[in-house]
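Sequence in, structure out. Go.
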Amino acid sequence: MIIELNERQRTILDKLSEDGSVSVTALAQALGLSEVTIRGDLKDLEDKGWITRKWGGAAPVMHRDILDRQREHQEQKNLIARAAADLVQDGDVIMIEAGTTTALVARYLLGKRDIHIVTNSTLVFSYARMNPLLQITMTGGEFRRPTESMVGPIALGTIARLNVKLAFVGTDGFTLERGITTHLMEGAEIVKAMKDHAQTTVLVADSSKHGKIGFTTVLPLAAMDLVLTDGDLPAMAAANLIAGGINIRQIAAKLKDEAVSKLG
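Output:
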C-alpha cells in the first residue's frame, strides 16, 4: 500500500516536527478545526506509522531531522524512487540503504511479487511492512535515530553474509571529484558493504545533492553502476558527469518522463 497524506495531515506533521509534541486542543485552534476532526487525523497518522498518540495529543515517531528531510524536494524524490522501483523485477532480492529517498523505493514496489528486501533502515521497514507481498530482512545493529538506521558490526556482518541483485544507496552529496560523500562514517561503511554484495548498485539522489560534500568520502562516483537523479540537474553538471564516465538517468520532474544520458 502506498501511503499518501493530505495537506492537513502534512501540516500536523510540520507542527509536530517544530514543537516535538502538541495537544489536540492546540492543533484544533491552530488549524481552525474541531477536536473531533483532529483526533481523526491523529488516529490515521498513527495507523500509518507517522506518530504516536498520547493523552491529549501526539508526538512524532521519527526524529526531527528525518521529518525535515522528508519535506524537502518531495516531487523529485518520489519520481526518482518510482524509477528505481521500476528496475526491480519479480523474484529479485535487493538491498535498500537508509535515507529518505531510498526508503521511498519500498513504497513503489506495489504490484511486484516475491521481492525480498534487505535493509538497515527502519523507515524502509515502515513502508515495506504495508505490502504483504514483500519479504523483509532487517540487518540489526546499533540504532541511529537521526537517520532511522541500523549501523555497526552487526549490520555489516549481516550484509557480508548475503548476496543480492540490486542495491539502492543514498548520499549527503556527490561530485565527480570527491565522489559520494556523507556526514556519518558508520553510514559510509554500510554503503560500501552493500555495493560489495550486490550485482548492481544504484545511487538515488535528487539534484540538490550535487555539488555538496560531506565529511567523509564513501566511494568514487564511478563505482556506481547507475546514478538516478531528477531533471533539475544543470545541463553543464550532467555533461561533466557523463564526460567523466558516469552513467546518469535523469527523471524529468515536470514532464514525468525519462531523459537518459549515457557515455557512449
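Check: Residues 161 and 197 are 8 Å apart (CA to CA). The chain has two domains: 7-61, 70-261.
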